[in-house]
Automatic annotation (TrEMBL), chain A:
Protein name, entry field: SPIDR protein
Segments forming domain DUF4503: 270-657
GO cellular component terms, A-Z: nuclear chromosome; nucleoplasm
Lineage: superkingdom: Eukaryota
Organism: Cnemophilus loriae (Loria's bird-of-paradise)
One biological process term in Gene Ontology: double-strand break repair via homologous recombination
TrEMBL record, chain B:
Entry GO CC: Shu complex
Record-linked InterPro entries: Znf_SWIM
Encoding gene per record: Zswim7
Location of the SWIM-type domain: 74-112
Protein species of origin: Cnemophilus loriae
One annotated GO molecular function: zinc ion binding
Single GO BP term: double-strand break repair via homologous recombination
Name of the protein: ZSWM7 protein
Keyword vocabulary terms for this entry: Metal-binding, Zinc, Zinc-finger
Coiled-coil stretches noted in the UniProt entry, renumbered to this chain: none
PANTHER family: ZINC FINGER SWIM DOMAIN-CONTAINING PROTEIN 7
Amino acid sequence: LCRGGLAERLCRLQNRERSAISFWRHQCISDDKILSDKSGVLTVKILEIFEECTIQVAICQQLEQSPATLSPEDAVINAEEPILKVLFTRETAAHLKSRPQDVIHIYPPWQKLLLQNADVPVIMNTYFSQKVLLSEHSEAREKTYGLTKTLIRKNILSLAQTFRLDDLDDKLHQGSSENQVPCAPQIHNHGDSKQLPLALSAVNDSLLEMVESQGAVGWRDVQVRVVIQRVYCLPAREGCRSHTQGNKPLCATLIANSDPPNVRLCLLVQDAYGMFSEVQLQSLSSTDDIEQYCRRWEGKSCCLAGMKILQRTTRGRALGLFSLIDSLWPPVVPVKVPGQSQDSEMMTTDLPPPSFCYILTVQSGEIHVEVDEEEQISNLYQPPAVHGLKEILRIDGCNERCSFWAQVLYRRLQTKHNVPIDQREILLFVTDSTLQNVVHGIPKVVAVSVTASCVLSVEIMEALSAGSRLVFFKDALWGNGRIICVERTVLLLQKPLLCSAAGADLSELTGPVRLDELDSTTQASSVCALRGTVVGVNESTAFSWPTCNRCGNGKLELCPQDRELLYCNQCSEVVTTPVLKMQLEVFLSCPSRSQSTVKVKVWHEISIALFVLLTMLLFLQTYEVQSVLGKEVGLLNCYVHSVTSHPNCVALEEIALL
Amino acid sequence: STLPAVAEELLREIRKAFQETSHVPDDLLLGLKFIFGPSAVPALDLVDQRSVTRVRSPSGRTLYQVLGSSGKLYTCYSSCHFCTCPAFGFSVLQKSESLLCKHILAVYLSQAMGACQELAVSEEQLTNILLAEEEDEG
């Protein structure tokens, strides 16, 4: 059961009630006198009984309070007396063995419920009920009755009628946005616009205490003070639990089809006891703000109010979240130890890493996250530890979060056919001075895979396609010899203000970037440089086409007026001097990997090495394979498509580095 | 019949109390226990775990899906009291021992406390959910 949840609460209440009931029953047996406290006792005479499900419904008449002198025969049915419907549970009914005409005492605590369209009040929670046996006569009769079974009518209830919980007025307000976050958020910041004064009680510093005391339904009146360790965005489907039916996930495919990018701003916060919580705030309309939020909020203290618990998750269920939490463990300053007193001597850093974490979200209406932007960075804040790529490649572990600053050389979109655009995976090839300046032993360039769950801002996407950029990768994941960017990883264009750069060289690269040369260890989906001699040409792949010299549009058309001229519809002009692009697959013999057949797709426009050769061929409108053979080619930068061993072949494509 | 009206009123009181105070008082929780018996605690647990989703299609049709404790997903109808769980078939339909199963109760409680997750699906997807139940039973 959820700690602090409603179920747990009811369990506790129910246990208490059960003990009270058995205690009471015991008292009744041992003490023949009716309990002295007569206040609140309801005395009823049963007129009619029937059953619905396991509840026994008794239509009764409420009697005046004079039980001692009352006998069943004396209690005449007085039309003035109010009628009640008294409900008994199966167990109580079995204990009472009531019949029409019986008089029952119902001791508190019982509950009265008034129904909307009925006059007759209903009495519930009638555990403490006792039949009144007032004379020897009735006792004997009771015993005989006990031997014969009375048939009690059972009502079968219709399932056609559902319950209406709302009143007609409420229907307008009961929208579908109960669990959705408003799109126009109002985050209150100190020093920003005026805040609404919240009538809140004192600020607490323990998340766990708040969760336990308030339960799952929310903390309207309480504030908790925490430190923001990380700010990131999560794709919206993280917010709802992905329901699966058999093997068919419903959530994932649906969100991909929705148009606006569903992204939520989230905070990973830590309280004074070292406990973490992930707070999911509003949906962001544009992901460009993420860099702003990171800058303004990370490391600062803030007060949370008006939150509710979305989920309590554990290490086993949320590996991504916990890998981030682990990177922030142990805390850099001593944290408080939960105990009776809050004296500051009880502080420690020697605690086991957390095994559970609460995920909180906005209750309703406005979000109350008051960040003290003006204030200093908290001592508890652990900025991302930046390392050089060389160090990261040497990390011995799995699922370790790492941060680094690197130059992106080449970008490749991995699109598979059945996967929607949203599920794209991007492959980035990056390097830094720690990799470039080494002679051998480690690769010069490393591949970083960016999964669809890592939210990229539009700014980053543009920067990555425009030119070679230095990008800060915050909290990427290292494991199994690969660096991947997943949810909670943030890519930023600016150097972080604070970071513990343990020997990392954040300077720009001087000199041209060098790639590893093609050799026997080269694998697919990597980049390398090669040199070799042309030993063959794949004639069937030779392909040329004109492109616009202004915009590079490769889809030129014939001019409608003059069919001898080419027209670019992107520039809306005639192209007088088109640039010819050629594509050709050549086979090379590379000394660095002499055993393999090396097949390279080369492009005319960028291949300076083959340029002269190919233009010559075009000009002559013929080409002789002989004239190409034996030509030296190098140093080409290529992307490796595939490496096969039988036949021993490497297929590459010439690329342009950013 | 009495019990359905009583159950409805109790749930309405819970909703009202929750709307006004964000809190469900103890006496209403005990009332749930009294009326619904052994289903009460499991139903509340399902609410605590946010296991109830309201599935809605563009035409306005709705149904509820509840993620049971065993990890199985059960479907509850909005138009009548029906649930695909075995307990419903047994206790409610066959033996008339209960008014609702814990999943239907969880649906009502989630409605009352604004704890329903929301899922928008296409008409076809809603149909598939309903038809899938048929396949399982067949």
